[in-house]
Amino acid sequence: MRLKKTVLLSTVLALSMVPVLPAWAGTAAAASASAAATKAKTPQATIDSLDAALLKAMQGGSKIGYHGRYAIVSPVVRQVYDFPRIASLTLGDYWTKLSPAQQKTFVDVLAEYTAATYAARFDSYAGEHFAVVSSQAMQPGTEGVFSTLTMHNGKVHRFDYLLQQHDGQWRIVNVVADGVSDLSLKRAEYMEAIKSKGFPVLVAHLKAQIASYANGKS
Amino acid sequence: MTQWRFLWSAAFAGSVLALSGCATMHGPGQEAATPSRPPLQTFNHTMFHLNMGLYDYVLEPVSTGYKAVTPGFVRTGVSNVFSNVGMPYIFINDFLQGRVQQGMEDMSRFLVNSVFGLGGLFDVADRLDLPMHDNSLGVTLGVWGVPQGPYLVLPFYGPSSLRSLPGLAMVMFTGPAYYVTSTPAQYALTGMGIINTGYVDGPKIRMVQEAVDPYQFMRNAWEQHEQYLISGGVVSKSQLLEGLSLPPAAASAGSPAASESSPQKKGKH
């Protein structure tokens, strides 16, 4: 949790020190995490590489700051998630009504928003650990990977991933956290936002939230 | 990434999520644009914004002050105590659902922390591999086959449903405040509970506030998590694959908030 009075300090830090120390620390870590993601040839290896990056970011915590964590998580997230597929599934019929430029914008924003959310929320470490419990073929080219995150107080959270194979690479298309489907949440919210306010407002909101994470306001 | 019950674990946690329900950044304008909203939906949206306002202007500042004047170990101890006193509500519901092993774990957790953790001040059970579970009377009724009924946002409490209402009474009767006879002590206990809720559930509340549509997000997440608890923490293959089917434009835009009644939300499935 961040105190409001530290917002200014965080912003200053983000603009000054972050590009120097955390980014340096983050770049080395990101390189190894990203390399692991590139080698991910099985569904489980994909999840393992994401978990490894998250754990590294959490262990870096406030020492490397948001930008350091983002530098670790972002390349891996972009590697292991199939954002074009997620974007089309999220927007349904509306996806085909967007121009190629709008589709690209949305995919880019979605990828950045996902990485920023991870960097902002996985911000400390107190002995948590990830584990892949099992995996199961769902359909040809579609596999479920069932994993857990055990908190420091022993509480276990379930993360069930749905992955699809594309160009020889297994990528995540949905995460169900403790029974709550990320795709379902996004679908309901984004479609309602487009219906009531329009596509540009949805994109503007996501960009504002990314900036808010970067500035330590969330 | 939550909680709670989804995000919202213990009894108070759930209630404060409701308290959290108040991100006004995106909700109100959008809702106002909706013509002729049914009365229950109007009530829910009003309560949601009331709760979010309470969090923004009361709970969050109090929580900030609480963190400023107390060391971390004190906050952890207080949080442990409140978590521990909520355990009877959890394990009674475990047993009512016939989930004996989960009930034994939760009851053992309560006894171990009460005796060896000095009334729950220290989380000794954590070291004995006794994990904490989420549960409620609403989940019990769902396991027994009672349908969810209309979705409700309760003042001060947050996301709920007709099926979950009896649970509010059960939380009261299984909690310590009901049995304390001294009025000042009751006030102190309740006040400390609210402060602790703000502290513990702050991240979950902010997660709601950060959503594109906070009301939709909270309702959708709460209902999905409730179903998950009813099914015993099992995500079926069909649930996982459900995300791959492209929704028709009209249906996806409608989603849960289109109607406050959820007839499709049965109990056991």
TrEMBL record, chain A:
The species this protein was found in: Acidithiobacillus montserratensis
Protein name: HpnM family protein
Automatic annotation (TrEMBL), chain B:
Keywords: Lipoprotein
Top-level taxon: Bacteria
Name of this protein: VacJ family lipoprotein
Biological source species: Acidithiobacillus montserratensis
